[in-house]
Predict the 3D structure of the following.
Amino acid sequence: MGTGEGVRMVVRRDGYVRAALELLDEVGLDGLSLRKLGEKLGVRGPALYTHFKSKQALLDRMAETMLDDNLAPLDDAAAMGDWAEWLTRRARTIRRTLLSYRDGARLHACSRPTERSAMTPLIKPLLEAGFTGEDATHAILAVSRYTLGCAIDEQQHTESDHAEDPAASFEYGLSRLIAGLRADVDVAKPPDQDVA
């Protein structure tokens, strides 16, 4: 396959993924299928299977694309700044994005990272703040899983089902989680030595 054809395949696949996200809003996760996507796009199954070997492969790409557009500006190294503020903004962005799609949180929960996903750039600001590699990975995962859990709970219940304000509850838990991480990294840092 030539370079031009490879680029066309990537562009076509991206268009299919974005169409699948539109379809998700129309039919929900349970109604989503490669067959329905093919009908929406006016293409036959083999054209889709060239890009996605299974429905799971499509779901994985959808979950990644759903977040990529909104997280890319935050994950730019120049924009990161303070690790705690960055991690807080990232969690808020993930929650807002998942809630903006019908069944967005469920889709993300049943997806698996694709080969484009990488933890290394995400833990860099935490490593620079004094986290160990293992603690930085756990911190990113803890905040991500907390955010996903809140979004799933919020999407599974109507507003009248919630005894509390879901946004306020999310913010409270997130602030406690970040405070705990900040306390842990401050304890792990050696105290500054006074120079005589």
